[in-house]
Write a structure and sequence with these properties.
The protein is mainly β and about 190 residues long. The protein has one domain (about 1-190). It is about 10% helix and about 40% strand. The chain has one helix at about 1-25; strands spanning about 35-40, 45, 55, 60-70, 75-85, 100-105, 110, 115, 125-130, 130-135, 140-145, 155-160, 175-180, 185-190. Strand 4 (about 60-70) and strand 5 (about 75-85) form a beta hairpin. The longest helix is centred in the N-terminal third of the chain and has 22 residues, at about 1-25. It is globular, with a radius of gyration of 17 Å. The relative contact order is 0.23. Mean pLDDT is about 80; it is low at about 5-30 and about 110-120.
Length: about 190
């Protein structure tokens, strides 16, 4: 009986690693398109280096970007990030009361079974003010708080902004995305507002 439980557990881990591996690849470049891209959904934002994503829930809003990503073909590596958060949704992250954070995400391998697994304890949280989002790889940010697999009402809008002072959270051209098990949308940075 114990052997069967271990076999089932090992199989579940392997399947989980396959899912994470397939989700953690760098954003693809669509045919006829050039330049960095975001992949929005189904439950993660797969991010290019250097560009901000806005996140909002109710009147609270934040912005974050991955400043530097060092990631291999298996989704293992590190990323540094910066984030901004405001409780009033006023339109600018230059106001007093904005919370700025910086941090690092890491996804290192662990030897196990017959191959390397991509999950082990480490810094897998991206903080935006009081919120934190789980990261399955250095460029893959969950669209729900923590590591939830449910829509929790957060909305994400990719931008072409590389500096926080260029962001206008009230820009009508922003396209907002939510956790959606049926959607995976590739968005080219050059087509986005700041």
């Amino acid at each position: 009986m114990r052997g069967n439980v271990l076999l089932v557990s090992a199989l579940a881990v392997c399947l989980g690693v396959q899912f994470i591996h397939s989700q953690s690849q760098p954003p693809p470049v669509a045919k006829g398109s050039s330049g960095p891209q975001f992949v929005m959904g189904p439950n993660f934002v797969n991010m290019p280096e250097g560009f901000f994503v806005l996140v909002r829930k109710g009147r609270e809003i934040g912005a974050f970007r991955l400043i530097h990503i060092k990631q291999d073909a298996h989704g293992l590596g590190t990323a540094t990030y910066e984030s901004y958060f405001q409780a009033n949704g006023s339109g600018s992250f230059q106001n007093a009361g904005v919370i700025k954070r910086t941090g690092e995400i890491e996804s290192n391998s662990v030897k196990g079974l017959s191959h390397s697994l991509s999950w082990r304890p480490g810094q897998k949280k991206l903080w935006v003010g009081k919120w934190w989002f789980g990261c399955s790889s250095p460029s893959l940010v969950n669209m729900s708080a923590h590591f939830s697999e449910n829509d929790q009402g957060y909305e994400f809008a990719p931008t072409s902004a590389q500096s926080v002072d260029k962001i206008d959270v009230l820009d009508k051209r922003l396209k907002w995305f939510r956790f959606n098990a049926d959607a995976r949308i590739v968005v080219t940075v050059s087509e986005l507002p700041e």
